[in-house]
Amino acid sequence: MRDIGETVTPPAVEGRATIEVRPAAASTTGYVILDDGTPIGWVRSAAIGFDGFASAAAASQAAARATPELLAWYRTRWLGEPIPWLEPVEEDRRVECDGEVVGRLVHPDDASLPAAEGFAFEMRLPTGLWIGTCEALCQRLVHAMRADLERADVRRRDARGGQCVPSAG
Questions:
Q1: Is the pLDDT of residue 151 over 90?
Q2: pLDDT in tens, 94-114
Q3: Cα–Cα dist 89/77, whole Å
Q4: 106's torsion region: left (phi>0), alpha (psi -120 to 50) or beta?
Q5: Please, are residues 63 and 53 in contact by the beta-carbon 8 Å criterion?
Q6: pTM of whole model > 0.70?
Q7: Is 18 exposed, middle or buried (0-12, 13-18, 19+ CB in 10 A)?
């Protein structure tokens, strides 16, 4: 049996990144999602989120690509529909799936996620998921929004003084 804090790295699948989910530095903040060692999101308090987007529109676009995968995952893994977001969400920050609010957009000034870098989004998950299950879901979501995350990664590296420069378009 695997320890809950153990890192599980699924084998790379052609066209997909190898995603890792590791305990966050502060144990009370859940887990960090890594794509080739770069933090791209989190799993915490029955929610999964991705950050580093340049604008609310970019985060919204990535969320729109991720929600059909989330819906497919719920229907095959849980034989049901996505779990609605618990708190009220402002209309312009809603992440919806089949007309149900399943998440929210997060702006950089949102105090509820102090570690979020840039704009972000998060979506509701069932409580008590095993870390391996979270990694498999992360793999699916990252594959669905690969282009969005690559743009966010370029932005992230450039902001940290890296050599990458965002490409036009």
A1: no
A2: 999 888 999 999 998 887 765
A3: 26
A4: beta
A5: no
A6: yes
A7: middle
